[in-house]
Amino acid sequence: MTRTRRSSGQTLALLRGLLDRPRKWRHGYDLSLDTGLPSGTLYPILVRLADRGLLESKWEPAPDPGRPPRHLYRLTAQGGAYARSELAADELRELDAPQGSRA
Amino acid sequence: MNGDTTLARRVAATLVRAAAAWLEPTRRGQWGRAMRAELDHIDGDYEALRWACGCALAAITLRRTDMDMGTLRVSRFVLALEMALCFVPLTLGWFDVMFGMSGVAWLDVDTVERYYLGTTEGVTVLTMILVWAVTGLVGPLGLIVAAGHIALGRALRHGWLIALLIAGPIAGGAVYLAANSIMGSEWSIERLGFYVLFVAVPLAGALHLRYLGRTQPADRLSAA
Lengths: 103, 224
What we know:
By secondary structure, chain A is an alpha+beta fold. Chain A has four helices and three strands, in the order αβααββα. Classes of the chains: A alpha+beta, B mainly alpha.
């Protein structure tokens, strides 16, 4: 079934953040700082994207002894295409929206 | 990271530990570990606390959405809450019908003849009381079956018990509807509440128990 539901503003913000440097692996906290999304919003979106095969993740070896390994994320090729199409659709909606209704 | 021993940092560490532990048994376990690991890389104590609060919320969200809604399988905790919601109101209602001021337990021939048998309304009310004294048994019975399912892993497999749990609220609701029609009662929000609490909700609980009993192996609970 084709998914027609539009992405939320928070998802778009995260997609924008991830697409900013698409091949770079990002930490959750860095993404939170970049996008302004709190962890309570960020992680459920990351999980959803990963479930749909739009996000890949890996564990980074611990940078220092005594610190735990960190989880890294970046968009898959499919995720990159999805992000671009969602952001383009959002821009179109912004252009189509009446002046008064824009945020 | 600084101030490892500040109260904010300790609370934050406890919160992310709890969030990770809550997600660990699920297929989202690595996400809990990921959130926990990030905390060690956040410098400000209050920023860490803010992060941890968000992680706790995320864990709740993920755990909730991780329930396999397609198969109606929920955790034991959620099932316990659901079953209490489904059967406690009916149990209380049944208790009132049985042992309340005009309860069945206190009825005698003289009372029945004097107050109920003289008029159509009286007979209707008496019929309704007696029917609910029987069908309301679904409340305590449902609680017992649910407790067995949740605590002991006993699935609901007896056909007659399933039929009773499902038929009880339906029969009670039908009698209540008929009684209100006979007495010409107008529709009210109280009646809607009655149908929801004493018919729809117990019926939903019974159907869920039936579903769980039919879809899980006898030696293993579906509930996590």
